[in-house]
């Protein structure tokens, strides 16, 4: 017989306490990287191994399909393969399929994969816009309401209390919401939230069903409990009934879905609700180097409000690593190119590409990285968002731009022509406040910036040339691969870890996002930075650019960087000071830069060596000097800034 895994080995005393606690309420409150997910998988496997639970009676839930899949893999490896690990929705779907025919005497209604069509119908009936982004915003607000257990009639009052900014006036939203529900019922369809609402209602109203359910499932486990919303909590309560066999783990400092109705109040209030609960706090961080941990502690230490239960300080357990690095760039393209060079350098030193991630706040930020990585022939994958050229608004814009290009006689002032053409697909001068409309605007403005970039390199370019350039880029960008660098939003990165993490675009308006206009919203943005920083095992790099790609508008670096950048770092200078410095060419020339990647140098050792800690030491100096001279010359000819990187194709 195969030897059973020793499930208490490789755990610290507190983790062991949580793993071996008797069945009943258990709560692990702990910061990122302290082994919460590891603790719950070991706990399940330990109880199974000791014969204290039957695998099929355990239900472990989490919030993303990927996290659930990872948990199943870990459980199998620990000898607890029969345990169900699912998202709330998948679990509810499975249960509903089983119980629906019994309760309703019909087959289960159809699950819709998205609600846009019916929301658009409901909006249309009221004479409201059915533009894709408007419908997306309405659908998002319906999701918030349903997740918060708020019906159409209660919406206006509840939305005011929660400080929501509905996409249309509240009374009108009530009518869209009610109209959508009516259309959906008539079509005998269910949306994702209905799965949860229906299973909760069945278990609450049908004692026989509840009894049968509770004979099947006896033990519940929830990962990332800080992000549970009222609807999911209601389902969890319906699953539990009067029992208390529930293990939860979470980190209130990682609550990043409160905009969508989630709240850490159940995590923080767990011990009050179950006074006999075993409550365990973990402080040792096994994921990250002490240098990364120190930065993460500082990010969250600066939070305005730290309710009880969130005041956890992480203590790094790993050997020392490099200091987190900071870099400021003139514009986004320069930032993306410099980071691509750093990625190449890391890969050259043996860090696998799948162990490197670039994390950003909004999906539109991925385009410059997709391009820079493609140019450098570095494979990547985009997680939790569509690749830039696959986004509906970009595809739509390309059709319009191709049309405009065909009619163009190649006269002049290109960015303007692109801007004009894109007005047809809804580009406005000022960015919309937030939501889906803002994301769409960001994508469209990225297309204008590509035009600005092209004109900088090829002043005589017109729309035709531009359309050809776009088509080429859409073609040449790599298809996603599993083994590549991960490009992901901060939201999609939760729970994951990489050896090297680049947090990019850390400017005001992006992090915190422009529409974070309340203290609470800004604090959620700060938690996003904390989530991002704590994904790194060893290398952490924070960067920002003072203008959009090719753009001239000056942007300020994120307020969250205040107090993080070390005093001896060139980027530590206050922005105003730096502007003055830049106005004086001599002062600017003294900023020490890495002779390989040209990022600002930090620390005396780096300055002495003349290169940053991420660049390799064995670069062919001679080639480098020649390349720089050549680039400078070529840049002068093409009238582009000297930092523009030429690919092999341009070199020949
Ligand atoms: P997050 O809050 O980001 O979800 P977490 O608390 O769930 O983090 P895990 O993902 O479980 O943390 O663990 C972080 C890393 O530390 C993993 O690589 C895990 O294998 C490792 N780890 C956890 N506990 C220990 C331990 N006792 N000894 C060694 N490594 C550990
Ligand atoms: Mg985890």
TrEMBL record:
Its EC number is 5.6.2.4. It holds the Pfam family UvrD_C. SUPFAM superfamilies: HRDC-like, P-loop containing nucleoside triphosphate hydrolases. Keywords: ATP-binding, Helicase, Hydrolase, Isomerase, Nucleotide-binding. The keyword DNA-binding does not apply. It catalyses: Couples ATP hydrolysis with the unwinding of duplex DNA by translocating in the 3'-5' direction; ATP + H2O = ADP + phosphate + H(+). It is an enzyme of class 5 (isomerase). It comes from the Bacteria. ATP binds at residues 30-37. Residues 9-289 form the UvrD-like helicase ATP-binding domain. GO terms for molecular function: helicase activity. Residues 290-538 form the UvrD-like helicase C-terminal domain. Belongs to the helicase family. UvrD subfamily. This is DNA 3'-5' helicase. It comes from Saccharopolyspora cebuensis.
């Amino acid at each position: 017989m195969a030897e059973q895994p020793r499930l208490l080995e490789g755990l610290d005393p507190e983790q062991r306490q949580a793993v071996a606690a008797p069945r009943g309420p258990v709560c692990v409150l702990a910061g990122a990287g302290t082994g919460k997910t590891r603790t719950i998988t070991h706990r399940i496997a330990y109880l199974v191994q000791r014969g204290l639970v039957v695998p099929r009676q355990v239900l472990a839930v989490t919030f993303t399909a990927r996290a659930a899949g990872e948990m199943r893999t870990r459980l199998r490896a620990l000898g607890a393969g029969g345990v169900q690990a699912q998202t709330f929705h998948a679990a509810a779907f499975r249960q509903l399929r089983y119980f629906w025919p019994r309760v309703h005497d019909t087959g289960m209604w159809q699950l819709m994969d998205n609600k846009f069509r019916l929301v658009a119908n409901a909006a249309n009936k009221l004479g409201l816009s059915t533009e894709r982004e408007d419908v997306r915003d309405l659908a998002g607000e319906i999701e918030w309401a349903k997740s918060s257990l708020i019906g159409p009639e209660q919406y206006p009052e509840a939305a005011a209390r929660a400080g929501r900014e509905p996409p249309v006036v509240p009374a009108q939203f009530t009518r869209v919401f009610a109209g959508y529900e009516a259309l959906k019922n008539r079509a005998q369809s269910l949306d994702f939230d209905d799965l949860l609402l229906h299973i909760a209602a069945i278990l609450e109203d049908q004692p026989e069903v509840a009894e049968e359910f509770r004979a099947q499932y006896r033990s519940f486990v929830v990962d990332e409990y800080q992000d549970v919303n009222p609807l999911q909590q209601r389902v969890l309560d319906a699953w539990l009934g009067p029992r208390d066999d529930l293990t939860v783990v979470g980190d209130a400092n990682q609550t990043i879905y409160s905009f969508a109705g989630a709240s850490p109040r159940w995590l923080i209030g767990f011990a009050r609700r179950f006074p006999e609960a075993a409550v365990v706090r973990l402080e040792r961080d096994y994921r990250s180097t002490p240098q990364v941990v120190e930065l993460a502690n500082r990010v969250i230490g600066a939070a305005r409000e730290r309710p009880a239960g969130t005041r956890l300080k992480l203590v790094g357990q790993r050997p020392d690593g490099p200091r987190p690095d900071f870099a400021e760039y003139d514009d986004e393209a320069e930032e993306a190119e410099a980071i691509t060079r750093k990625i190449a350098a890391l890969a050259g030193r043996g860090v696998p590409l799948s162990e490197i991630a670039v994390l950003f706040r909004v999906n539109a930020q991925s385009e410059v990285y997709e391009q820079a990585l493609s140019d450098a022939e570095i494979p990547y994958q985009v997680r939790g968002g569509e690749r830039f050229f696959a986004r509906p608004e970009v595809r739509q814009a390309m059709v319009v731009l191709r049309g405009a290009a065909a009619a163009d006689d190649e006269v002049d002032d290109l960015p303007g022509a692109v801007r004009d053409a894109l007005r047809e697909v809804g580009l406005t001068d000022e960015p919309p406040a937030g939501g889906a409309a803002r994301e769409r605007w960001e994508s469209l403005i990225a297309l204008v910036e590509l035009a600005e970039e092209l004109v900088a390199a090829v002043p005589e370019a017109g729309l035709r040339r531009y359309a050809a350039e776009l088509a080429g880029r859409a073609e040449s960008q790599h298809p996603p691969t599993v083994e590549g660098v991960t490009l992901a939003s901060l939201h999609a990165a939760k729970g994951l870890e990489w050896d090297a993490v680049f947090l990019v675009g850390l400017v005001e308006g992006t992090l915190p996002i422009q529409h974070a206009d309340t203290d609470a919203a800004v604090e959620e943005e700060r938690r996003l930075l904390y989530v991002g920083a704590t994904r790194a095992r060893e290398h952490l790099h924070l960067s920002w650019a003072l203008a959009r790609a090719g753009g001239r508008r000056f942007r300020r670096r994120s307020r969250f960087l205040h107090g993080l950048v070390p005093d001896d770092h060139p980027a530590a200078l206050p922005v105003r000071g730096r502007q003055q410095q830049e106005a004086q060419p001599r002062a600017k020339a003294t900023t020490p830069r890495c002779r390989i990647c040209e990022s600002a140098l930090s620390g005396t050792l780096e300055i002495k060596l003349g290169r940053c800690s991420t660049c390799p030491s064995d670069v062919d100096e001679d080639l480098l000097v020649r390349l720089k001279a050549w680039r400078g010359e070529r840049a002068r000819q093409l009238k582009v800034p000297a930092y523009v990187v030429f690919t092999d194709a341009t070199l020949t």
